[in-house]
Amino acid sequence: MVLYKLEEFDPNYRDTFQGDDIKGLGVYTEGTDEKIGTVSDILVDEDGHFRYLVVDLGFWIFGKKVLLPVGRSRIDNSSNRVYAIGMTRQQAEDLPEFTERAGLDYDYEEQVRGVYRSPSYTTTGLETSTPVESSRLTGTTAQATPTSYTRDTYKYEHEPALYGLHQPHHDTLRLYEERLVANKRREKIGEVAVGKHVETETARVVVPVEKERVVIERVTPEDAGTVVSPGEANFREGEVARVELHEETPDIRKEAVLREEVRVKKVVDQETVQAEDTVRREELDVNAPNLPVEER
Q: What is the DSSP string of 170-213?
């Protein structure tokens, strides 16, 4: 896990702290009020969360710096002090030395965490939310040390007793920001009623019909004038032929037929709606008068 000095992570952090810079504050033991050292820097992770206070033990051990997890500190703004919860001078001396040249890695942090997980430390003044968190700190039989974690799976959130910001101990280090929360609500925008009505129109159909008629033709045969044999000529009066005539008449009627089906259903169309608003975020303001400040 990569850690940064606060000023490297945010060069303008002093503008957010609004003058409450804990760099330079003395670090004391609780109860005995023995001075252990001075806060020389703050280490944050890649998300800007406070993880360690760098404590310079130069007050009594020249040149040695150690790491104090923020969860094991208590910031007293009224007295401008930082109290190391459950730490004595001897325990501070037992901590592995922090040097910028050596850098930080998982193994080094495990050495630091191993000291704070020692049963010799107590939870006096520390607000832990669960027995498991407390046992992590005190080293009791219920202790849940991160032996099940690896360098790839370990997270600071696994040990809130070491890295959690507890109220009111760390109000100075608590930064807040606003964010947009996107939710959806279902609203009725109306309803669709489907009915039917009857329309009338004039329809026309064309039906071909047949009518019979009689055509009487008189023609002169080619052998006209030829003498017929005796008895062939039959002179009589009366009906000689009967022909029936027929005609067709249109039979028009109406019948109902199925024209189409109407199916009513709902479909859901999805679209992406973008929204924007102004959000606020608290930034750090740090005031360190007459203190060496390293600019990079």
A: TGGG---B---------------------------------B--
Q: Which residues touch 135 (CB under 8 Å, ≥6 apart)?
A: 141, 142, 143, 144
Cβ-contact 131, 142 below 8 angstroms: yes
Task: Please name each of the domains of the chain with its CATH number.
Answer: 3-173 (3.90.50.10)
Helix (H), strand (E), coil (C) string for 230-275: CCCCCCCCCCCCCCCCCECCCCCCCCCCCCCCCCCCCCCCCCCCCC
Q: Say which DSSP state 96 is in.
A: P
List phi, psi (to 5°) of 237.
-110, 165
Token pair recorded at residue 199: 């329309």
pLDDT single digits (tens) 117-173: 877 654 443 333 333 333 333 333 334 445 577 888 888 888 888 988 877 677 666
Q: Quickly tell me which residue has 């070491």 as its tokens.
A: 162
**Rg of the chain on CA atoms, in Å:** 52
Supply the pTM of this predicted model.
0.52
SS3 label, residue 275: coil
Residue type, position 273, single letter: V
